[in-house]
Amino acid sequence: MARFDTGCLIMVEIGTSLDITRLIVGIAILSYASYTDIKTRKASNILWLIMGSVGAILLIIQYFTIGFGDKTNYLIFIPIMIALMYVLFQLRLIFGGADAKALMAIAILVPLEPMISQFPIWNGSVMPSSWFIFSNSIIIFLFIPLSLLIFNAAKRNAKFPYCVLGYKMSINKARERFVWPLEKIVNGKRKFVYMPKDFDIDKELNEFEKNGINDIWVTPKIPFMIPLLFGFICAFVLGDLLYSIMNAFI
């Protein structure tokens, strides 16, 4: 019995060590990627190669030490998630190539639900961890419209739908910041643009100036890498947020 208990303890310690390594690597790489994304709106491909490579090495170590138990079938979600992220990127449902590559690498780094001591608090998700890291990030990202609404309400500038998507800014500042115009001049009139894409921003800003418009509504180019970082951390600390929310109401 003592040998059995010792063996189980060793397996738990190995599994914990592997998940701690995954957590540290994920936080380190996503934090650096978030920093470079904020500064330049770019994240080097080498980051995802490192994350994916470390993830593959950890999977090999786990296979030859403690195995995957009854979660072996979850490994099939690695190629499924990689393919899904590629499709979502091609459909422009994920705007940044770095975001898609990060999620692909996360699929390799954390294919199974992590377990470190008593964390995550809400464990037992039926979804692969790479998926609920993604869904956690989306839930966190959805708090941005609320924060914009509060900001605009404080400025007494709560004009819908602009106030939940962005804020007002001068043309000069818009040229210096990472923002998209939420407006466009069409036939001499200001028109709301819900999905600002496929147009020359500088040309549009010049068009506003020609029409005597100095302040316009803009939406910040918020890197998805930031909510992805917090979604990753939440997966290790709290678990699958969407699954937990659904369980609370079912």
Could you tell me the number of beta strands?
Answer: 5
Tell me the fraction of residues in β-strands, as a range: 5-15%
Number of helices: 10
Largest sheet: 3 strands, antiparallel
Estimated radius of gyration: 22 Å
* Low-pLDDT sequence parts: none
Coarse morphology: elongated
SSE-based structural type: mainly alpha
Helix content: 55-70%
* Assembly form of the protein: single chain
What series of H and E elements makes up the topology?
HHHHHHEHEEEHEHH
The average pLDDT score comes to 87
Gap from first CA to last CA = 41 Å
Strand order of the largest sheet: 1-5-2
Structure description:
- With 250 residues, the protein is mainly alpha-helical.
- It has a domain at 2-135.
- It is built from ten helices and five strands.
- The protein has helices spanning 2-40, 45-65, 77-90, 97-109, 129-141, 143-154, 171-176, 201-210, 225-237, 241-249, and strands spanning 167-170, 179-181, 183-186, 189-192, 215-220.
- It has a three-stranded antiparallel sheet with strand order 1-5-2. It has a two-stranded antiparallel ribbon with strand order 3-4.
- A hairpin with a 2-residue loop joins β3 and β4 (189-192).
- It starts with a helix and ends with a helix.
- The mean pLDDT is 87.
